[in-house]
Write a structure and sequence with these properties.
This protein is α/β, with parallel strands linked by helices. The protein folds into three domains: 3-240, Glutamine Phosphoribosylpyrophosphate, subunit 1, domain 1; 248-420, Rossmann fold (3-Layer(aba) Sandwich); 434-591, Glucose-6-phosphate isomerase like protein, domain 1 (Rossmann fold). 35% of the residues lie in helices and 23% in strands. The chain has 17 helices and 24 strands. An eight-stranded antiparallel β-sheet has the order 3-2-4-1-10-9-11-14, covered by helices on one side. A six-stranded antiparallel β-sheet has the order 5-6-7-8-12-13. Strand 7 and strand 8 form a beta hairpin. The structure holds 5-amino-5-deoxy-1-O-phosphono-D-mannitol (M6R). 5-amino-5-deoxy-1-O-phosphono-D-mannitol is lined by residues 296-299, 343-345, 348, 351, 394-396, 470, 474, 584, 587-588.
Amino acid sequence: MCGIIGFTGSGNALEVLIRGLRRLEYRGYDSAGLALLTRDGISVVKRVGSVEALEREVSSLAGTESSVGIAHTRWATHGGVTDRNAHPHTSCDGRVAIVHNGIIENHEELRAELIARGHRFTSETDSEVIAHLLEEELRARPGDPRGALTSVVRKLRGSFAFVAVSTWTGDAILAARHNSPLVVGVGKDFSIPASDVLSFLEWTDDAIFLENESCAVIRPGRVESWLFTGEELELKVTKVAIEVSEVDKRGYVHHTLKEIHDQRFTVTRTLTEELGPLGEAAKLLREARRILLVAAGTSYHAALVGRYVLAELADLDVQPVLASEYNLVSRWVNGDSVLVAISQSGETADVLEAVRDAKQKGAKVIGIVNMPGSSLERLSDVHINIRAGPEIGVAATKSFTSQVVALIRLASAVSGKEVPLDPEELGAGVEQVLEQEPQIAEIASILKDSKDVYLIGRGVHYPIALEGALKVKELAYVHAEGLPAGELKHGTLALIESGTPVIVLNPSDDTHTDTLSNCQELKARGARLIGISDRHHSVYDFFVRIPRTGSKYASVLLEVIPLQLLAYYMALERGAEIDKPRNLAKSVTVK
Ligand code: M6R
């Protein structure tokens, strides 16, 4: 939800901002803009559209000498997708420019007060109030940026990460964060505050993760930071263990396709390598009286798989909870509870809110996260890193399989029994599934114009049906619904007509025979069946074979890959914007 970046230092700010912005585009992509501090004041360029379009537009600034600037890629919350609502926003006098990620909840009240004091607004956004408030404060105390910033943040309610440049503060970038992410990449003679580390990896792997509810004055190569309360903070530089090359497409047309293929090595990496203190996490789970698995979207589907895994392998009764619906269960969370928060980005606002609530009630938090240094990682009592590597495609793919593997390892750590997955068998299995890509692409071209697609599975395969449906919806923009196979006859069967596509997840385990009966019921009503299984049956019109393994959990990991490929190729056939599906963003940092 919006990416922000700044640059101050020796070097060309424009170049860094544009390159960094390209890396941030997966966080929001309806408009983009930047502001450069020059000898003559602040120059702003912003417009609806991609960073690429912005880049063409800023060619006019190419000769502008500036070593201080800020930039933004937007996912609209308040105010339509228009040039005027794009960031940066400036103060009336043009001496302050800001970019913001989050929502200022009291913006209407602040706007009314500012207008009453003579300010003129040019956008419909909640963010613009920050520029006007900073203008007032900096004007009132020009030599005290610290005091000015602290005074502004104390007036704001909601969630925010913002960075600002001003003609009052020269090469200093002012920054603040409250429940939205902000990290500063630091080099010898430059600093790059940004929404995530991926945006500045090209220049530095030294990062300072700013504390929640803190402000910062960021100068070339140095940062000072303090809490909203005024308390000074000692800052720690963390080395980011991500290679720049991991963030690139590496010859693939789309990040999403690359990330589906990455599963060749990511699932086995999560299975065999160090993820963090699994033993400690297992102990917390064994001692807990209530265990909640809290997550959103694809990560929630991993939580649903986790419910089966923890029940079947560790005899634990856990409750998966959608992060956005956590309020209902919050009343039962206390010191005897453990909240397992699952999030690829570690920045999903609903997940973080649940985590903060649980911590406040004395519960322990186990974070299962992919992005190192994320807010979830830092808020958790124990964190497990799934090590799927950077995931840029907005549709989650490799993070899902790694989350499932991490949950299986966690369940095994609780039970003390061996992990029921064989790395070699699993690695070979992923290869065999990927080899069927041409066949899957053919099925996709047959399904691409379907009005609806249904997916069914029983037991632990049911969450995979949900995950497959989510992939088809967000990538191909085709309505899809995942169902427990046994539920069909309780209503949805009424929608099945001649030719309705139904994808059936049916490996040969304890769910196989019953699901096969449901296939016959569907067939009798004219459904077109796409079977995904290690066992062929004549009931299927199309068939994708997954290898037979000794483990039902290996089937779960293998059967989701054809669904990811199917959704990808349906999207490709339909000409959809694959890495950045419309209306979505990778990291959902607003509620
Ligand atoms: O970063 P998180 O795992 O917390 O993100 C949760 C969801 O926003 C995410 O899974 C989303 O549903 C994806 N677009 C699914 O592909």
